[in-house]
## 1
Amino acid sequence: MKIVQMVTQMEGAGAQKVAYLLHQSFLERGYDSELWFLYLKRPAYSGKEGVRVLWERMPYGLEFFSLVRKMFTWIRVDRPDVVITHTHYANVVGHAVSVVAGAKCRIAVQHNPLQTYPVFARHVDRVFGTLGIYTAQVAVSETVVQSMSSYPDQYRNIVSRVYNGIVAEEPTAQLAERYLANVSSCGPKILHVGRFSKQKNHDALLQMMLQLPDANLILVGDGERRSEIEHCVKQMNLGNRVTLLGEIPAEGVHALMHACDLFLFPSIYEAMPMALLEAMAAGMAIVASDIPANREFLSDAGILSAADPASLAQAASRLLANPAQADASGRRAIERTKQFTVEATADGYEKLFPALRNGVSSTPSSNATSSFPAYQPAGIRVHAMTKFDLVKVVAEAIGKETRYIIANHNLHGLYCWFHEPKVRKFHESADFTHIDGMSLILLGRMLGLPLKRQHRTGYMDLLPILAQEAAINGWRIFCLGSKPGVAERAALKLRRQYSGLQIRTRHGHFDPNSTGKDNQEVLADINEYAPHILLVGMGMPRQESWIFENKNQISANAIFCCGALMDYVAGEIPTPPRWIGMLGFEWLLRLASEPRRLWRRYLVEPWFVVGQIATYYVRERTKSQGRGQ
């Protein structure tokens, strides 16, 4: 799938960083992704993989039409499946050209409250969203969603809220020292990161400094007001206490966040303030203006203040004079930012891609309304399902008040399938069988099946969106498996991460004899809770056998085999980076972490499976030749 993102100008600001992080995530997930900047303002991403610039400077006069023609040509040549535009001018120009050029899926990203857009852009945006020029929209926060409250239903019905993701980096003390070389070592160091524009309210920052005579202010950023701010610093005699660093690399910003004493963020308006979130992830003491977006994200992890100089100075003095309060709010800030990952952001955008919502050909399961492409390599049924498809069938099962059994296959699962009759019976009774292993995707491609990377879903990839939907919709989850205490530790982490999540656990160390006392107690515990989702994690083939033997006594809408999922969540087993799984090397990291337990699974069993599949196709070919004779 080809994805093209467009941003108005290349510089190191928040929307540009969001688009670049998304672009990197799309590349890691196997998409053919490119990031286009309409024109170059500052070379923040020049030379990066897949990054292109249409115009070398801001276009003036007739140059604008040359830029539009160039954009049209690029879209016609590249034929992207999805066009995503960021910032209001890219939304307007990018979508107008994309419609004419024939791009089918067009997503507009709203990075600011709509009332802050220039009048022309605001009116065109409203028309485009209402008439369907945008096929989907992303609002980066609830603040942006609320700014649309007076818009027509046609506009608001295509809006999805997707929070931007941030990357927390390790501090580099030497790098911070380099940037702070000209800053006085006396007095606290106050940091502000943001574009030099009216929105960021630098005037209040400078006026505040007159009331904090011992403090130093470090300003990171660039923009149209830089010369004006430099003049103000000189006029106010603040040159020895205010340092303008300009636009610096991301690693430098992170280093400063760990080296400075306080982060000040007095913006007049924001949508999802990326610099504020990065400061929160660094555990900084924070004072921010009391505006809707800052309330939404900072909450009690800092001080929300009026944006006037006196109020900012008073709030800053409080935190600087109370290290214990600053440390406590910093710890809360770190916890709050853990939900804002680039992985979750990319997941949110993927939900809007038509190729991931709809299969190219469909084969319904025996018990379900939903249908997905189904294939039978070597006579073993699998469905081409994404993680979003799996959440969709869960919602369908709950809505229909029925029960779906959802199986999965990886190489170890195929090994068990060949050896265990109960596993084969379990798969025959399952409503869906998704793929949990890039090796099966590769094997399917070798056999000529149109399987893609997104058709591989591991449970650590599924869990975040499943838990989020469960928390939003009030779905109850029951986890059966793991050693005593492990699943409950995992559940505690999930409850903290997903506010409102209902989840109960029971360990998997019991006698699974279907008529035994242990088993009946387990069934009674599950049915008393009446979960919408049952996750059974007792390892292959025990979990499949248990579900097959007890399925008619289980009160749950969606039943999954999840293996060691809760062990990963609890930290009992090291969790490989998710991009490793998409590349097909997660098995290697698991083998390295548990060689004694897993060497046979990863080094011996695959050869048996490949041999069985090769034998099957040789036999089928021989039969076919015999019939031909």
## 2
Amino acid sequence: MKSRHRTKRAREIIGVFLKYGVRSAADPALMRLAFEELGPTFVKIGQILSTRPDILPDSYIREFRRLQDDVRPEKFEDIRRVIEDDLHAPLDKLFTEFDEKAAASASLAEVHRARLPDGRGVLIKVQRPRARETMTEDIAILKSLSRLLGFLPLTNIISFSDMMQEIGQTARQELDFLNEAENIRKFRENNSGVRYITCPGVYDAYTTSNVLVMDYIDGISIGNAEALQKEGYDLSDMGTKLVRNYFRQVFEDGFFHADPHPGNILIAENKIAYIDFGIMGSISHGMQEKFNSFLFGIATNDVDAMTKAILRIGVRKNSTDTDLLYEDVGELYNKYISASLNDINVREIISEVFNVCKKNSISMPREMTMLGKGMITIEGVVARIAPEINVMGLAVDYAKRRVLSRKTGKQDMLEQLESLYVLFSTGAKIPAKMLEFVNSALAGRLKVKMDYSHQDEIFERLNRMVNRIVFSLILASLIIGSSLILFSNAGPKLHGVSLVGLAGYAGAAVIGFWLLISIIRSNRL
């Protein structure tokens, strides 16, 4: 029975792709429509794919970002059954109040408000019935079809089998609410010393792999600038705190919120409250160092450091031409060399770095793509409430201080090095193009390009000269040959003179006369 259902679902998947013409046209919009028709599992797959700009073209990323969870809530009886089965008690015994209407409804779960017997308000995240089984089945079907899905345009860009494996791993983590509960606890512990950061507490006695019960935080979405201003919040201060804390999550904790959109960040009681910890990013200490090196390369206009950092961070899928990579990074460097950090857009530079990686067959690890997505989202949030804040400038400054502090270990040396950096970057500064020239020469990538602006004219003159030499040789040969024939008195004669010799002289005279006229006309005697 299970095998028959899987076969039917496989036919449905292929049929929908064919219906939208995916076989004959690599149209990202059609791919998105196909994903939407195939249901919640494919919506989630598309959302996961939208976080991979290092392997997908921008056109696909833009379309997949449009995939939204627009799913009808489950019947309340089904939600009740999931809660009671997992918590082994009737709903009215577990909660004194329970809002049957879902506060939020997504592809894999929905959220309800409730109240515990002690009076505390909570949010209950309940996994949809059969959500785990449906997604597991669909991913298994896609894995088995990976060899047959050659007609999909995406298979020319990515390894479908590897992508399904990554999606399966991500989905399993997101479908197990015990993982999310652990994420909340870890985030709370990491930020326990930050007075302006908070997150909901988790009720372990009410939490299973299918049910997650956490504190209800009554706050204002950080994206609602008007409401925040009415409450008297300093939006610039909130934006700066948000950015600095996010860099702390990345560069110090190595554990960061990977989906910090306005719906997942509230402002409550003068604190920034993160909610929904289903998608979190982890970045190892080694990867932190590599990413710091890349940002420091941007700060110091060092193409060599930027390129080496990319090679250390990325995974080379095929043979990578290092010289071509240096050229591409150099072009990116030239674009931003004269720009102030305040003019650099995080989304733009991350997108361009990923494009350079794609062009040179370098794949970014998932932790870096999640970090890139998180930084882009944070920049978007800050732009809505405090557009005067420059995220890239704060990021580079943060990385610069960390790199310098690790290299010295002493505050006075840190200040000296920072002063030296400021001196060279703003004072007695080598002209940017000269610095680029020196860097290229030292790296062995210096190239000389010669521009022959009049090469056609030169080649034409050379061609004429060669033609004249050839005609001159023919002329000389005719004269010499005709003279020998006349001397030997060979062939038919006219008045005792060889006609062949006379003909040779006549030909030589014609050629000589034509050559003389052409030289005179060219005015180059």
## 3
Amino acid sequence: MASRFSSACFIGRWGHLARSSSIPCFRFLFSTLAIGALSACSIKQVILPSQLQVAVNQAPHASMDPASQRSSQAMYEFLVGQMALMDQDVAAAAKHLERASALSDAPSVVLNGSLADLYLREGKFDKALSELDKALLNAPTDYSLLLTRAGVLEALNRESEAQVAYELAAQSNILQVVPDPYVLWAKSLERGGNPSAALAVYEKLEKRAGKDPMAHYFISRAYEERGQFDKAERSMREAMRLDNSNSSFGLELVRILLKAARFKEAREVCRAILEKEPTNSLAQRLLQQLAKGEQALSDSVRQLSAENAHIENVPDSHLRVALLQLDRKDFGPALRELSLVLALSPDNTQARFYSANILAGSGRRKEAVQELLKIPQDDVLFLKSRTFAAFVLRQDGDLEGAEQAARQAHSEAPEDKNVLAYLVLILRDQRKFKDAAGLMRQAISQEPDNDKLLFSYAVLLRDMGEQQAADAEMEKLLQLNPNHPDALNYIAYGLAEKRLDLDRALSLIERALQSRPNDGYYLDTLGHIQFLRGEYSQAEASLSRAVSIVGDDVVILEHYADALVMLDRVERAIEVYRSAIEHGRDSSDAEQREAVARIEKKLAELIEREQTNTKKQ
């Protein structure tokens, strides 16, 4: 029976390091939004506008007069443009959609909106505005279009028109009041030297804010900047009430209280934050300084409590709103805002990085990588951008590109073991075992007692066919850390496969399960050992639990079916064998194919045996 030490299984039975701690979790803002699964944050695919759908349905029956020909050609150009967008060929998409727009007799939200988005990304604000105006003829109250149009007007320095447009966007958004148009409207007024009008906008938002904590946050900031600390406190406390898990609201409140010289209350808020988050370093530092009295406030605390007289520029305001939209998972509007930011400020790497997150999540992965690779080496986001690019490229099967991006990340931060582990994983995917081993040995020479490195190196040695060396490294790791669960599982499973010292194997896997009692792979190892010891009922119970946790692993399903056979539960065993074959049939992994071949043979023998028994009866 195969031992499942292959590279494809590194993130399975043998990949707990990668699964639990090695691969960075790419999330929007890296704190509030989940990349765990990048595909989960999908933007809906573009749908055909109704008038074009009608045209498609009627096209075979229409007479080919000039108007019909024009309509048919517009439909064709639109469809080709949409296909180009799906293929991430932006230039071709723009060319065909422009033709469709010129040929169309009536405006279309999807057609003209798509063109506006493309023009916005290229910084062609006049053209974007023209397409937005056309789209709004069909959807005059479309909140997202109105908000984008206001931003484009602002980018064109048509501030007074932009302010009117923001007001229209705020009025149109009647179903869900969000702070976005109000914030941008107020910031535009502030930049125009009209702070009193800006405050009036925030007061309008306050009347409609409802249960949106970020709306109350912005209202609080507006009052704070004008020295109205009582009102600022009231709004920030409301934001805290609506979202009591957000400690940043508490820290904002501390700043307000410091400005108002209410140090006792500031201390109380810091203590409340630390009750929920004992490791909040900023709250700890503030509390320490506050305990020494006003005169002992550190520079960081003074900076926190200083008056914020900064007036945001246009890109900063739109980036702030884009982050709000990301937090709400409004990915389409957020991408438009970020496109506007990048058109106005191409060096804004924050906007570029967040834009890449959205593009990757919506399936536009080539564009995402292009954006990530534009972030320069001297930027603070360089490391994250290259690691993320490596992640996307590896998922798409471009292992050479993934390796290049991962090597750039590793060169930037050679001490980062997460980056190293991911680079090694990519090298293993390409079977560049010597390169991977060289990197691992270099890292281990610097940190000889790093158990994560030692575990990864042992698995790598196994991949290279150096079984004895791999086992020796794993035993060395177990001496260093006797309760390392992955090492315990590794050695236990290896002993079981060799049918050696099953008593020790059982003891090791039981220790591993003390750390991770619900790990499906550990439970499989336990069940496999119990099976080899002839403890079939116990094995079936353990393997049943393993299948419930990791139901798509071919070998776990095989082990479970083997136990069912020994308990004479033949019908269920046949069902599980077939499920294992189905799960592994199309696998590109050699070990999985080997397992499927083995299971097919077991299944055929079992069915033949049952047929023979039936004939005898």
